[in-house]
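Researcher: Here's a chain I'd like modeled. Treat it as a single chain, no partners, no ligands.
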Amino acid sequence: RKHQLLTFASAISFRALVALVPLTLLSLAVLGGVGLTSVWTKSLAPRIQDKVTKPVYEGIDTSVLKILHGDKGALIAFAALLLVWHMTAAVVTVMEALNRMHDVDDKRRWRRKLGVALALAFVVTVCVVAALLVVSAAPKVGGGLVHFVLGVGRWLVAAIILGVAVGALVRYAPAEHPRPRWASGGSVGIIVAWLVMTLLFK
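Model: Modeled as a single isolated chain. Structure tokens:
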């Protein structure tokens, strides 16, 4: 109650949830742009097809294919700007929450604070997209032993990538940087929780 952590957690969750929309659009547009449409057709689509009704799946599949094969320049620009807006807002909320946790008065100038928020938003976005690509695309690469190694090792690689994002937030978002040991411990805790929840709801 003292630090209003539940309020901050709700605000961060809301921003992250809203940011998923432009992130999804941007990810699909990038996949189509680099010729990795098979990530959708061979990896993501079959999983969704088993969990929704046929009409719902056909609607989703048609929309995604239009994004993958359509004009992606304007979509990438629009989705990127929208994503930057929401991710920056989420990072600013994280900054405020961590400052409250450390009982720190943030005296950074607004330009510096905005610059840090933008940089962290970029790092987090890149890491999340990279982790999703690794988890989605790795099982479809190679065969035999290579396929097995990539299928199992993708979770470790994704955890490391997300650890970079969480570590950057915990280390650089507060006005006063926490000790490396504390930051590393917090990052590990968050990543372990993410892995457990992912495996439970897989």
